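Work package 3, deliverable 3.1, input record:
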Amino acid sequence: MTPSLGGPGAGCSVTRVRRLLAGELRGTPRERALEHLAGCTRCQASERELHLEAEALARALPFDRFAAGVAEHLARIDGRSARPRRLPKFIPLALAAAMFLGVGIPLVAHISERPGEGGLRVKGAPSLALYAEGQGGARLLDPGEKVPDGAHLRIALGPASFTEAVVVLLDRDGATLLYAGKARAGPLPGAFEWTGARRGLVVAVFSNAPIEPSDLVARLSREGVKGAAMPKAVVLTLDLERGSAQ
Amino acid sequence: MARFLVIPGGRTEAVGPGPSTALPEGGLVEELYRRYAPAVYGRCRWLLRDEEAAKDATQEVFARALKSLPEFRGASSPTSWLMRIATHHCLNELRARRARWREEWARLAGERREEGVLPDRRELLRALLGEVGAEEQEVAVMYYADELTQVEIAEVTGRSLPTVRKRLRTFLRTARSALSAAFPDLTFPEEDLP
């Protein structure tokens, strides 16, 4: 008996079908691929298989979990770097943020069911990250690193399975709402410059129930970070300290 | 255009931009997920045979792609580029866990309980990958699983066509020997590569 391992056939290639479905083929190559596919049972089988792969992925790893996981891996890759990594100067902050869409950085984030009590960050948990744009481009701030004076800052979330998020900057001057809305993986829209007190805190509250941002801001202003506590919510905090060097 | 907010010192009450809108649909990662993740996940599942490891590997592959975005975008075929990264990653994982390879033949024999039933093509290929070196593994996956031609493999890997051909022949020679040892009633056709 002679088993077959397969291999490319005359005009048949699963990679060509993959490229077609991914929208990589244009013009004549696309026309040819479509024409071939219409009359080739082998490539039609490949196409069916690719649709099954997509269904399997959607079941096993929905987009939100995928994005959060990619964020964790990016954080790990960054963590493996011995030195802070600067993105090339030509990449503006917005593009850098888009590049790292979904990134969640452990940084000095503390995860705690009860605010104020630090804990370990665990896989699958939400994450909070801070980028700073300086002269060298946009980059992730390292744990404990001071926030450069005048830096344009941007927050990125890794919400894991949470659907709602509110992010507030808290310092001795008060609480400022940075974001309230759907908890989507990636950088939040809008950058900010923090010119307030020397020390501060970014507080992110993740929940599967809607969070009233004005109530939260009021509680944080009144009670400090303890005011972030709410049922079935996870609170992440990120310590900020301003420095003079960038 | 993204908003920019200055949060000043000395403020006396909560100020802020108000609730923001979330990132728009169709962001970069979402697009990558939709277009490429199914094939990458399929590759990781096939090679690793472990759902959790495959999910983790898929995420790792896309994290690497995002870290090398200019290279990814500059690839003549992003699909081939990603599949190559995925294959490398999974084969490295398997090399780090050598025992998994050794289990393959036993598992394959268990699945093929009676003569006259051919082993699944891709399961057989996967078992044979454990018998060869890293370069032969990569070329064999591209040829037999991705169905790239030898010329296409040479382009993707940057190797010469004779080198690709040599790697495939080495793979096939080793595969014949491994197959006859595991399943004496089976043999690959004697004809050479096309």
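Helices of chain A lie at 14-21, 27-39, 41-60, 63-80, 93-99, 213-223.
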